[in-house]
Specification:
The structure holds 2 protein chains of 2 kinds. By secondary structure, chain A is mostly helical. In chain A, 68% of the residues lie in helices and 1% in strands. Chain A contains 23 helices and 2 strands. The longest helix of chain A has 51 residues. Chain A is globular and about 85 Å long. The two termini of chain B are 20 Å apart. At the A-B interface, helix 5, helix 11, helix 12 and helix 14 of A face helix 1, helix 2 and helix 3 of B.
Chain lengths: 612, 89
């Protein structure tokens, strides 16, 4: 069977599975809709959290990003896992004991303030929409590449699926579909990773092969008779071609530190992750499920850097010094078919600067920006002397002749390593599972913020259970459609605003929740002024460098050498400083709130807390 | 038998002590070994492999330690819960 048939088959089966689960797990009450009735076992919650967390970006883009940045890519690996330690130790058990439905719930009740609740609602909605737009786009891209349908059609199909299970099942439906989606996505990521590890390093465990010798079918060909480790070879290749060494970075240490911190703290403050810990029965289950979640996430996050290094080595070895045109005499290295397929989809381009018909891959860009091709892939006139697609971009002065989009590394990896068709199709199903599971979790946060925090807790407190549930479903439906529109008509700034999501979560939620638990003295004035300062500082720094004056977005102009991606760290410190100072000079919180703080610090009684 | 309030605050102090230790390790493996001292550590190899040590901490080692930390926390807290009689069951 060809790749397309396999892809239809595997994605079709996985979709049928998700819908089947959704129909079996419909939500009957708001409690089921918001927190799955609070009865999810820890392992299941761990799997759901892992699927919720691992987005289209983790699955499709992260390994590619690391592949092209080497050590500098570590910020994502450490940042997106280390946050779980903070979450497990500092937030999850206490929020579970508090036992309501949302993050704004905690902030509003702990600080007895509608303003604080509203700030939290706006942040939660903004962060979630930023994030969900990327997921819907991811769905469209996978459909577009593998099933050759329009991106728009792909987004609509994805929307329809999410609509069914998020609107019908709420958190209950989402949780159990996410359990299935975790299995699909981890299988889809690990099977090609294991295959490639065997081919390149002769061991089935990518994490071990990563630090081992080049051996096996592909590995010994690349080593070319030498006994050399993968990383040593990769560093040699990098040196030969003028790239910075793979295993050491080129970013400033202060910036690496701040980005990692902002991602960790941001992870711990993201509402769609936090809310998952309301769904387990007991405090001890909240702790344990954070452990399961990180363990299950770590499977992908420790394999991704290995895949990145394999793909990088293999890529350089395959393309550097290869001829584009075939039948140029025996023995000449020729570019493989996958190169030409991805060139046809516009994600690879080659400019034969010296006209020798041989590809030269060096450090630096081949030309300015993304490629614009002289004609369609079938247009023979728009092809150059070797048969390559011509680009109209003005070439840059450097020696490099190759443009390659980072995102294709995971998608093209099975082709690059020559794996069977069903594995390529599996990657498509996995990418969809990753995107859909994250999208559903985010949509639920948005719908809950509207129906629970905005309607029930603020505007119409007398709303009946039945009507609140209807409002929640409506809000979910509207959010899905909006998210789909963002996927079809992506605002040009989506990539830019991802820094926002983490920066805002780090500089607003994390300090407010942490202080709410660990400082009995923290009061409304302190928390609100801290949040407002943190958000205002972080947002204006990012807006200035991303939108107002993007040309100044470099280390020379950054404060203390901190990029907009890492500024959330400073925002968080400011939030803490302002909150603690203001709280010192304003009256302590009410007796009732101080009792609440004492009660969330001990696990006993979590069952009752939920019944309130 | 001390009052339940005393017990609760003793439990909280024990909890904070545990957090300080675990978060100390969390910081040391990621920000310490993976970022601040990465170059010094890269002069060494992870025994039995060809990983530069600092690079390994940044792209794998710290993640394994993170997992271990959470499970250590789960076990230690369950013990504390039982010791101070604040467990849920």
């Amino acid at each position: 069977m060809d790749v397309k048939t396999w892809t239809f088959l595997l994605t079709g089966l996985s979709f049928a599975l998700y819908i089947g689960i959704a129909i079996r797990t419909r939500a009957g009450s708001t409690k089921e809709f918001y927190v799955a009735g609070g009865g999810v076992p820890p392992l299941a919650n761990g799997m759901a959290t892992a699927a919720d967390w691992m987005s289209a970006a983790s699955f499709l883009s992260m390994a590619g990003l690391i592949s092209f940045t080497g050590y500098d890519g570590s910020v994502y690996l450490m940042g997106w896992t280390g946050g779980y330690v903070l979450l497990a130790l500092l937030l999850a058990p206490y929020l579970r004991k508090f036992g309501r439905f949302t993050v704004p719930d905690f902030i509003g009740d702990r600080y007895e303030s509608k303003v604080a609740r509203m700030v939290a609602v706006v942040c939660a909605i903004f962060v979630s929409f930023t994030y969900v737009a990327g997921q819907m786009r991811g769905v469209g891209v996978v459909f577009g590449r593998f099933l050759e349908v329009e991106v728009e059609t792909g987004v609509v199909v994805g929307m329809a699926i999410v609509l069914v299970y998020a609107v019908l099942g709420g958190m209950k439906g989402i949780t159990y579909t996410q359990v299935a989606q975790y299995c699909v996505l981890i299988f889809a990521f690990m099977v090609p990773a294991i295959y490639i590890a065997i081919l390149m390093t002769g061991t089935p465990i990518p994490q071990i092969g990563f630090g081992g010798m080049l051996q096996g079918e592909l590995g010994s060909r690349i080593a070319d008779g030498e006994s050399i480790s993968l990383l040593a070879k990769l560093n040699d290749l990098h040196e030969e071609l003028g790239f910075a060494p793979y295993t050491s970075g080129s970013k400033d240490m202060v910036d690496v530190f701040c980005i990692t911190m902002a991602l960790m703290v941001g992870t711990a403050g993201l509402p769609h992750v936090i809310v998952r810990f309301y769904t387990v029965p007991r405090v001890r289950d909240a702790r344990l499920s954070a452990g399961w979640a990180l363990l299950l996430i770590a499977v992908l996050y420790t394999a991704a850097p290995a895949v990145a290094a394999f793909a990088r080595t293999n890529l350089i070895d395959t393309v550097e010094g290869a001829r584009y045109a075939e039948n140029e005499g025996a023995g000449a290295k020729v570019l493989p078919d996958w190169f030409k397929n991805w060139e046809n989809s516009g994600l690879i381009a080659w400019v034969d600067k010296d006209g020798d018909g041989v590809l030269r891959y060096r450090s630096g860009s081949a030309f300015e920006g993304k490629p614009t091709f002289a004609g369609g892939p079938d247009d023979a006139d728009a092809r150059g002397a070797s048969g390559e697609r011509l680009v109209t971009n003005a070439p840059l002065a450097g020696d490099n002749e190759l443009y390659i989009d980072r995102d294709i590394m995971v998608l093209a990896n099975p082709e690059i390593a020559g794996l069977p068709n069903w594995i390529i199709a599996l990657v498509a199903a996995g990418g969809l599972a990753a995107a859909l599971s994250t999208a559903a979790g985010l949509l639920l946060v948005i719908s809950t913020a509207v129906s629970h925090d905005l309607l029930k807790r603020t505007l119409v407190p007398e709303i009946s259970e039945r009507r609140e549930l209807i409002a929640a479903r409506l809000a979910a439906a509207v959010a899905v459609v909006l998210a789909g529109l963002l996927g079809i008509y992506p605002p040009g700034f989506v990539a830019e605003v991802v820094a926002f999501a983490f920066g805002l979560a780090a500089s607003s939620f994390f300090p407010a929740i942490l202080l709410g638990i660990f400082s009995r003295r923290m009061n409304r004035e302190g928390a609100v002024s801290g949040m407002v300062t943190g958000i205002a500082f972080t947002a204006s720094y990012i807006i200035y460098f991303k939108f107002v004056d993007p040309s100044a977005n470099n280390a020379e102009h950054w404060w203390f050498g901190i990029s907009p991606e890492g500024i959330g760290t400073l925002g968080m410190l400011l939030n803490f400083a302002v909150a603690l100072t203001v709280a010192r000079f304003t009256p302590p919180p009410s007796e009732e709130v101080q009792m609440l703080v004492s009660s969330i610090r001990v696990p006993r009684g979590a069952g009752e807390a939920q019944q309130r | 038998m001390p009052s339940s309030e005393d017990r609760a605050s003793a439990y909280w102090r024990a909890n904070l002590k545990l957090l300080a230790v675990l978060l100390g390790v969390w910081f040391a493996v990621s920000f310490g070994c993976g970022i601040l001292f990465v170059e010094q550590l890269n002069a060494h190899r992870l025994p039995g492999t060809d990983f530069p040590l600092g690079f390994w901490f940044a792209q794998g080692g710290s993640i394994y330690v993170f997992c271990a930390l959470i499970f250590a926390y789960v076990v230690a807290m369950n013990r504390l819960d039982a010791k101070y009689g604040v467990s849920e069951d």
